Fold these 3 entries.
Entry 1:
Amino acid sequence: MPRYALELEFNGADFSGSQSQTNARTVQDVVQSALAALAGERVGFRPASRLDQGVSAAALPGDCLLARDWDPEVLGLALNHQLPEDVVVRRAARVPDAFDARRNAAAKHYRYRVLVRPVRPTLDRACLWVRRLQDPARLHELAALIPGRHDLSGFACLRHDDTDQQDPHRDYLAALWSDRILDDAIEWSLRISGRGFLYKQIRGLVGAMVHVAHGRARPDDFRAAMAAGWSARRLGNIAPAEGLLLAGVDYEPCPDWRAIGMESGSGSPEVRKSGSRDREST
Amino acid sequence: MPRYALELEFNGADFSGSQSQTNARTVQDVVQSALAALAGERVGFRPASRLDQGVSAAALPGDCLLARDWDPEVLGLALNHQLPEDVVVRRAARVPDAFDARRNAAAKHYRYRVLVRPVRPTLDRACLWVRRLQDPARLHELAALIPGRHDLSGFACLRHDDTDQQDPHRDYLAALWSDRILDDAIEWSLRISGRGFLYKQIRGLVGAMVHVAHGRARPDDFRAAMAAGWSARRLGNIAPAEGLLLAGVDYEPCPDWRAIGMESGSGSPEVRKSGSRDREST
């Protein structure tokens, strides 16, 4: 049976995370249903990352075995017709039998957005909202401490499964804050990359960095938490899931990805919601 | 009784439009409830524009009479504590008794977003999605026709109320498309300003312009529709409500607006959703 990799984009708002669960709507279950409808058989889909409820992805790869041969682009197009409006296949590839989207991941890239403005945002809610940042330069100072091999479990939460007993050291490849001036706000984005992250760790790191940038704790408290591992005292809040986005996962070697929808389709605009109120009266 | 102007931002996704209705959730009703909770009496709020179901606003002004004197900023802060998470007061002003947010509006500024990318978007759905635009330069050509005084009712829908009998000529002040290259898409935005617009007219204009930019109709068809008024044949679809945003309304003279939340508040980050899954276990 040939193996395929699929790269998904999804909006986490209405999902209970990426991983299959009983009595909850998850990305894995929705993709498996679409694959089953297409293949006429039960198909397992293995996502590269376990994303929490409310977290979104621009590019979450996963892999599956199918009975018949598919052109990867046709497979993606056919799945996109089956999938609900909050998840879509961006790229697809035929991969070697041994490919495992989770185990073979060489680097995972995440982005966390913080919106600084005087009133709470209503239009753009995929962020942590803060009224102001007293000393935003602290963000750069703290992010510079992250790259390297560390035990940063002091910023994570316990999963309460057997993975909590494993070595918490991880390789962090990059961590960089950037800012962008909008009409009415300043958007701060953390781009953070690593070979793997602990449970709620990025959200914990963001909460701690924002706490220091507020002047509620000192950079030395952050350094102490980095050194203390599990026993570290929590700095700030776990930042909300809505602000976190999986931007992409790298593989070495890279799958032979095919972008979906580049050549096909009519090019006509698609009106997603066309309820009775949109029926024209002229 | 002193009169106040309030400028609202709201996310239209869960509202049945801006204008009060029975058995539907509207912006006007939600603001009136918040005002009543604050004032301890029934308070009317008059929005400057009637926005359809699904349309959002960055700045929708409205006005109301209150029994007691309020500092405008304190009024805005107090209302923001009462209002649900999808609507917020951005600015507030004490205005003359004769001020009428709708009648006194000198110009209304709208924005419509079109996202061009090969697969349907899941993260950013406040747009019209098109797979590609065959000849986007047509957008500039058509927008240049709009400024001036015209009867553009051929792009609008009938309201089926007495306003349909009125003169459909309006003064259009500006119409301009701009594009922005994103990681995986091109975003086209129409900024259009006028003293007033007909029912679903901006969405009808966008649908027609995109139709021509697709090569489905000629610019001359658009010109003919501009000349034909109500009797014009519909060009393309009415673009979906989610893509439309009221960017702001101008007044002459300008109210003495006070920005809400600039000086007050603790500056601490606010975690909006803190369900049990966000409780930390370390």
Note: Residues 3-103 of chain A form a domain with the Alpha-Beta Plaits fold (CATH 3.30.70.580).
Entry 2:
Amino acid sequence: MFFIIGLGLGEAEDITVKGLEIVKKAERVYLEVYTSILTVGKEALEQFYGRNLIIADRDLVEQGAHEILQDANSKDIALLVVGDPFGATTHTDLVLRAREAGITCKIIHNASILNAVGCCGLQLYSFGETVSIPYWSESWQPDSFYDKIAGNRRRGLHTLCLLDIRVKEPTLESLTKKRKEYQPPRFMSVSEAAGQLLEIISRRHRDHKEFAYTGTTLCVGVARVGSDTQQILACTLQEMKDADLGPPLHSLIIAGHLHPLEVEYLTQFSESKEKLLQIAKTS
Amino acid sequence: MFFIIGLGLGEAEDITVKGLEIVKKAERVYLEVYTSILTVGKEALEQFYGRNLIIADRDLVEQGAHEILQDANSKDIALLVVGDPFGATTHTDLVLRAREAGITCKIIHNASILNAVGCCGLQLYSFGETVSIPYWSESWQPDSFYDKIAGNRRRGLHTLCLLDIRVKEPTLESLTKKRKEYQPPRFMSVSEAAGQLLEIISRRHRDHKEFAYTGTTLCVGVARVGSDTQQILACTLQEMKDADLGPPLHSLIIAGHLHPLEVEYLTQFSESKEKLLQIAKTS
């Protein structure tokens, strides 16, 4: 059988008891390190599980399905992924390939930022479409997520912005070479995301009032959700640009219409209660 | 310290290792049985944890915060909730009360239907606002969720419909009495939800093409997600009305714009591949 096991928010103990039992007994266990990141390293996980893990990087997950699934019709093979198994399209694709090969699949669910973001007090049912904010390069600066944020804001909904993760990205120069070279890993911070969002509206020469958001819009930055070093900050988008929430992973929420209970909850993540109330009023 | 621990999708082994360690050591552990349901009973959990649990029903959670939080500034008290702790407003409120009383809170996240619904192959990033479909009574038949589904569909987004759960609802007759009497628990099925959704459009006398959905719209019903008896069915809304996915909990998804990979994944949950392709084409 082929198992895809969600590791939750990234600490070793975030795995479910069900997941841990499978990890202990499986023939081979792959650790996916491409669509998200762990807050602990591979070694810490191996020690916690009492077994060795095989790293599944981007190349292996996207092109080596055959290798991962080998013998899975007679033995138990597991793939560990941060968050919930269906957070990334690659995993859906892997399940399809397994089923085509007649291999039974079982998914072990876990928390992901999509529901854990509720930790900031914004109601999960008041979120609209989730968007992804990619790193810009000199020649590629997409901003299609702007219209999605605008659509959510028009309907009074909050927007969860997932921030870019670049792990094992080949350098442009090595793309045509046999031996690929990789860029150092990058994780977009709430500060970088805020800067990019502000850059987008400064480029759009319309009346300021028509914008999906402005520098004074209430935002919430979350970092390392679920870990002991979790940080949450509620402030304006302009202030978020200068904020430092420490190491990855970060996510940014652009608030929509706020319920009084949401405002009350957010005050604890603001410089002062009065300030948060002021931002919420004018946001 | 006060812990709110997510139990995930409802089986005993769905708790995280982190959560289980806290449950084993805590002074008192409450089991919330009001905003969702377990697929196992209290006794099975007690046996699995090796300790006794205190049932926290609607009255206790909403009015007995003081009782739950007693001694939490010096001892570890835990509240277990199905899914993720921030799935329901009641829990946010409980955290606020704890903080007001100077009690440190820690949240142990877990899977909830909001991310586990990805098991049907519809991409989580293509979902719009989540809606709740309540049971109708003779005098109270709200349909405000219709406009939210319409908004999602217009933007090509899928809609996750959470279906009503009625646990420990006082009977109308006993509302004014000292000793409350309760209705038997009810859990809305995908069939009941589909019937109600169809009833709404039959009541709206507009041109059929303007409707947010019709009887031929592609829907996905999911039941007991994450358990060994999980069931998924992809069919038209009209067919869903006659479907039986067995015991609770059920959730219903109204599909928006479909990506080819989503269609391919859904075929396994349909009567036949050809039929699913046909529904997806005209949906």
Note: The mean pLDDT of chain A is 92.
Entry 3:
Amino acid sequence: MSTYKAPLNDMRFVLYDVLGAEQEFARLGQTDATRDVLDAVFDEAARFTETVLAPLNETGDRIGCRFDKDTGAVTTPPGFKQAYAQFVEGGWTGLVSPVEFGGQGLPYTAGVPLKEMIDAANLAWGNFPLLSHGATDALLHHGEDWQREVFLKPLVDGTWTGTMCLTEPHCGTDLGLLKTRATPNGDGTHSITGTKIFITAGEHDMTDNIVHLVLAKLPDAPAGSKGISLFIVPKFKVARDGTQGDANAVRCGSIEHKMGIHGSATCVLNFDGAQGYLIGQPNKGLMAMFTMMNTARLGVGVQGLGLSDRAWQNALRYSRERLQGRSLSGVKFPDKPADPIIVQPDVRRMLLTCKALVEGGRAMSYHAGLQVDVSEHAPTQEEREQADALVGFLTPIVKACLTEWGIECTYQALQCFGGHGYIAEHGMEQLARDARITTLYEGTTGIQALDLLGRKIMQLQGAGLKIFLGMITQFCDAQSGNEGVAEFIGPLREKTAQWQQLTLQVGQRAKANPEEVGAASYDYLMYSGYVALAYWWARSAAAAAASRHSDAFKQAKLETARFYFARILPRTLAHAAAVGSAASTLTALDEAAFDA
Amino acid sequence: MSTYKAPLNDMRFVLYDVLGAEQEFARLGQTDATRDVLDAVFDEAARFTETVLAPLNETGDRIGCRFDKDTGAVTTPPGFKQAYAQFVEGGWTGLVSPVEFGGQGLPYTAGVPLKEMIDAANLAWGNFPLLSHGATDALLHHGEDWQREVFLKPLVDGTWTGTMCLTEPHCGTDLGLLKTRATPNGDGTHSITGTKIFITAGEHDMTDNIVHLVLAKLPDAPAGSKGISLFIVPKFKVARDGTQGDANAVRCGSIEHKMGIHGSATCVLNFDGAQGYLIGQPNKGLMAMFTMMNTARLGVGVQGLGLSDRAWQNALRYSRERLQGRSLSGVKFPDKPADPIIVQPDVRRMLLTCKALVEGGRAMSYHAGLQVDVSEHAPTQEEREQADALVGFLTPIVKACLTEWGIECTYQALQCFGGHGYIAEHGMEQLARDARITTLYEGTTGIQALDLLGRKIMQLQGAGLKIFLGMITQFCDAQSGNEGVAEFIGPLREKTAQWQQLTLQVGQRAKANPEEVGAASYDYLMYSGYVALAYWWARSAAAAAASRHSDAFKQAKLETARFYFARILPRTLAHAAAVGSAASTLTALDEAAFDA
């Protein structure tokens, strides 16, 4: 079985030494978020995730959720319900929610390490509370007063959970095609009818009620995505005064048999004239849904990070324990029958790949989280808008890259185990199977790529990119006299300049041919992720050197940065070449000739 | 459920148009292997694999092998045993085995497309007959006359199957550590005692007997890998006159619960004084085992190819069927509610990546197979030796690259399905889980990389590389006037020159520091694979243009070659940069500081 230990030391390094979060929270007026408070929160989160959630991970996978087709009920794996009760008891569900609705009001950023720990400990379990955050956000930003009053408190305190009901059998990415209908009843309620699929936590036994946020079309709705509205549809009816009534006309039709996250209930939900309340404006549902989706996307990125971290922790342990062969530069452990495989350079390549992607990815995602706080609490509107643009720009990069790297890290970590990695009892294959969902849900990597290049760069004139490039340049300028990181500054400046050129180049080509954006998008996205990570590694090396961490810690940051620049960053060469290729290399082949 | 259609058209293109196999077989005196005969064989193989094996793939995964701990018996999934009986009935087990032992004596090359079809149709099932080939080879090359007489015929005609028993709980790669003991009984037999793990097809219900080839140590054996001997240990004892006797003292202790290939029995075998016969010379067992391993490694490479092909066939079908969104360059199917996703450039990127890796990999692996025939049947010893060196050089590339690409193709193909790819009923996730074993067994990718760079390049002075580079240069020279492929020749020459330089560079560095080989090995391997594939794509484009295939087929080869050169071959830039990095980027970090 794989084990998990929360990487508190590195989490704190990222928050305090790299990002200066403590000072930042003070500046933003989030005065409760002192280092003492946060450290206590993280210590307790580590205890909870390591001792309560992590031990349930293997049984959750093996036993999975059970579906009773007679009643439509879903039973979660043994221990999941009790763990959720403890989670609620500990006040975790409202950690970063507003005090006015019963939350603890800590910064959004503080929720990111918590989420990383939950996902590393037990990704499938983590999906139950996860979606409540999206529902909370949508209600906060788009709900009427009474809706916030009635639905927010139980979502924040964990009495109820939430869902996001978007996908239908024939449409996922293209929501304009959806068929679910909402008919006004004349009393302020609507009757919702249709079938939704892939609904995470759509049915379960953890709470007394579930609040579904459902996309549907009103009778007079315009065609396509401009005619979508959002509705609150609770599993048990809830009156405007908050009293809970009879079962609503929504029923779980089945749960999916999946490659992984067996402990997470992925439901087909059949709405058959279910009572619902419109949330926000008619036909503006997609915008409200995007509010939920953005933080959900950052959250899925963090899922990739958590799984990667757990995988590499175990690979490191195994590589130190497994005795096999001898070092080529001479026997390292003459008293043992063989040397541990960590002496092999190629095993170190796999371990360092994970370490570089995990720790760099941690800085990248925590920084994105911090920008969410800045976008809400910065003193000036200009700064809030800038941070908002930055979050919009970083979200597809964090979501896509951290999940793609999650695939890679769980792959490399499993590979360190050799054939043993393929055997269920070591737990590595579960991590690989669980990771596989993360590049699919909340928008595939391809969709993130289009969001980045098509929307955040082309449509918004690269506002977020400009801010981010400015940050890199500012850092490089500030480090100009620092010999400890001088080796990284030149290559970083070079890549930053190339990033700008590539962006202009694609923009030019897109004027003549709109297919150029789609053709370049994936490689542009990955290029961006690797350059961003180079920035985070240079900053991490600089921050470590200036910190009070141990010499071993400083050595590890410096050598991992060197490894990253020498052996991972060159992947940008391949991605840049692909971005530089004409769209015709993808579009020239006749569709019918693919299998001629 | 995923479907499978044998790609006979492309298989024939590779064999006849790219490789000129028909003329080659005639030159080698393999006169039975006419195009008529081979085409009939492939047609029948397609029918068998598509209609008998492919439909058992999903149930094989879902039900898997069952183990009875009271009897030690393994029951294969429903239909597997009957399919094996049909396979034996059809004479498939001996397709490429010598006529003198009951085989059909066709070239080794003819077995490669057969194997590709079997693996694509049902990888788990394919593992049962697979290991018989290794046992057959070992007996052919190292067995005494009576051993060949008694054991070969039933292995060739499929009455019995074979295994390779190498791995033990504490040793896989480092066989010098093995503990299984062989004690001479004084009557020409030995008593074998020890535990072997990860034994594919180690126990099953398909045949009356199983021939285990077991590595063990004689009492006076030298330490390490120089003291390993190979033994024949049948499940039921077999006398020297071939009569089958009582059960031998070998028992299956359990079968592994794995990420995939659930229909393949991966056994723990406990030998408790089992009767065995020494095969080959005492203490020379490793060499005999390498005979089995080389063809087994090529075979596992072909497993990666088969899975990739099945995955991409299904992704192509789905991408044509799934309607979602509209083409950015204007609506393509106005009569439909949305365009099929194949109009999206990024979906085409994923499909073309698969197509390029599958079809290029097919040429690469069939060519390696052809060299096995040349190494055995060429008229001059010099040519046979050259082909043998080439096979040795190509084997780790084919094994490692085709399986790594199998991971990538099953990933990309699943990704084309979006969230539906994660659901079991579509069958894509099974392909991804099954593919995951291929970069592990028969030597991990890291082990292949060391075999290539450490052994085939450094120890053998790059004999195989020189021959292969000569082939590429000869091709480039011959095409100098061919405008149809001129765009590929320049880049191919450039990469070929760089391949030589990188090889010399690592060789130089390795003189000063032996760790340089291990540090460069993986990236050197992948670099080699991508340049080799560039050669096969240039040759494929040239061969297609000169062939009688359809215009659509010719367009597809040309455009896929262009895609490959523009968007995949640039990965060599990243691998070359990593090869060029000093070993210190991997070795500098103190082992204890990895998680400081």
Note: Residues 454-586 of chain A form one domain.
